[in-house]
Design brief:
By secondary structure, the protein is α/β, with parallel strands linked by helices. The chain is 31% helix and 19% strand. It has twelve helices and 18 strands. The protein has helices at 21-27, 45-50, 58-64, 76-80, 100-104, 128-147, 174-185, 199-205, 231-245, 268-273, 318-333, 349-354; strands spanning 2-5, 30-34, 54-56, 67-69, 87-90, 110-113, 155-157, 160-162, 166-170, 189-193, 209-211, 250-253, 279-282, 298-302, 305-309, 337-338, 341-342, 355-357. The strands form four sheets. It has a seven-stranded mixed beta sheet with strand order 3-2-1-4-5-6-18. α7 links the parallel β9 (166-170) and β10. α6 packs across α7. The model has no long low-confidence stretch (mean pLDDT 96). Bound molecules: nicotinamide-adenine-dinucleotide. Residues 119-121, 124, 127, 129-130, 133, 170-176, 193-196, 199, 224-226, 229, 237, 254-258, 263 line the site of nicotinamide-adenine-dinucleotide (NAD).
């Protein structure tokens, strides 16, 4: 059984790193990587070869592999080049693009979308969304610090006392909690909003203040995800966010509702009244952003406030992000491959959720 590792066209990361070798060997899998696959993550072809992973052309990887892995989905033309019945593992975000599932049935391959793995304790070791969100939350704070003309910790100097930075986090999910932890380590005073009641305790355990907006719609039964809030709730939330934003120096915005546009929490009016020199990092940019002015994959300045729209900051940590991605994939493969044979057992809840198209 051959596993193919593709070079990403738009990311620095690579889906499988040479550290995978031992586990692949134990499953009876041989691997081949596209030449240059790891170069933007600090991994040379030689490094793969030293670990028993062959190097091939993109064409070879696509046509000769039984299991193919990439972070971003490849083109239709490249899916056509895959072996009939091959297993293709990538991230298709079908909850954002409902037509994709029927489209994928045209290629005679089995398609696994890792973003459909349940957010359960059992599947935690395969949860790529969490691995990447955690890195993004960390990097968001470092990015904000880099654009900020002040420092985070309180400091007493002979020239005067420097007050601590006030940082606000919108959405205390995986990315938000990591942002809180990072900002606290740097000495900021942190407060956070979330609509899920479970988030309160997590925020407080990290030493931040939880800001509660009364009357959030209950999220029980949504698989751990947040649910859409009423217009009336969001209007009240925006007013409270504005009140807090005017006193903040930095906002890390991560609030999302799966399958929907991100909630608008920072209005134009809020930005127009914020302190010049403040920084907003909007990790919800790819689903519309939490801030009215956010432009996806752009850094702009409005009223002296720097607004960074980027949902994929994990890619800027390509070394560690590739290793975590690789580990998540290997953990998934362990429930699929045994003694060099792959079985997509639909009675397994994780496989059933992640297998979005089956070869006929
Ligand atoms: P996400 O990226 O979908 O959203 C980020 C955060 O925004 C969430 O915490 C959400 O509640 C919050 N949010 C939505 N609307 C908001 C609003 N109007 N105001 C403020 N906040 C708002 O979330 P995620 O980080 O992918 O996590 C989703 C859920 O899955 C969380 O409950 C998380 O704890 C859970 N989870 C569980 C596991 C596990 O058990 N294995 C692993 C990872 C995540």
């Amino acid at each position: 059984m051959v596993l193919g590792i593709l070079k990403e066209q738009n990311f620095k990361r690579v889906a499988i790193t040479p550290t995978a070798t031992k586990k692949l060997g134990a499953m009876g899998i041989d691997a081949v990587a596209e030449s240059g696959a790891g170069e933007n993550a600090g991994i040379k072809d030689q490094n793969y070869q030293d670990n028993g992973i062959k190097i091939g052309t993109r064409q070879q990887v696509l046509a000769e592999s039984d299991i193919i892995i990439s972070i971003a989905p490849v083109s239709d033309g490249e899916m056509k080049m895959m072996k009939n019945g091959a297993i293709y593992i990538s991230m298709f975000a079908p909850y954002q693009n409902q037509d994709i599932v029927s489209h994928l049935s045209n290629f005679g391959i089995n398609v696994v979308s890792m973003d459909m793995i349940p957010r359960s304790t059992l599947a935690q070791s395969m949860d790529i969304l969490s691995s990447m969100a955690s890195l993004s939350g960390y990097k968001a704070v470092l990015k904000a610090a880099d654009h900020f003309n002040n420092m985070f910790p309180m400091m007493m100097t002979a020239a005067g006392t420097i007050p601590p930075t006030k940082l606000m986090v919108l959405g205390a999910g995986v990315a938000g909690l990591q942002a809180i932890a990072t900002a606290k380590r740097l000495g900021a005073v942190v407060e956070a909003f979330d609509t899920r009641s479970a988030a309160k305790e997590e925020v407080m355990s990290l030493g931040a203040t939880f800001v509660e907006v009364e009357g959030a719609t209950d999220d029980r039964g949504a698989g751990g995800y947040a649910v859409q809030q009423s217009d009336e709730f969001l209007a009240r939330q925006r007013a409270l966010v504005q009140e807090k934003a005017l006193k903040s120096n930095i906002i890390i915005a991560t609030a999302q509702v799966r399958g929907r546009k991100a909630p608008l929490l920072i209005t134009e009016d809020t930005i127009n009244h914020m302190k010049p020199g403040s920084v907003i990092v909007d990790l919800a940019a790819s689903t519309g952003g939490n801030c009215a002015y956010t432009e996806n994959n752009k850094t702009i300045t409005k009223n002296g406030v720097v607004i960074i729209g980027n949902s994929d900051l994990a890619d800027e940590l390509s070394g560690v992000a590739s290793n975590l991605f690789s580990n998540n994939i290997l953990n998934f493969l362990q429930i699929v491959v045994k003694d060099g044979l792959a079985t997509l057992n639909l009675e397994n809840e994780i496989i059933q959720s992640a297998l979005i198209s089956k070869a006929h």
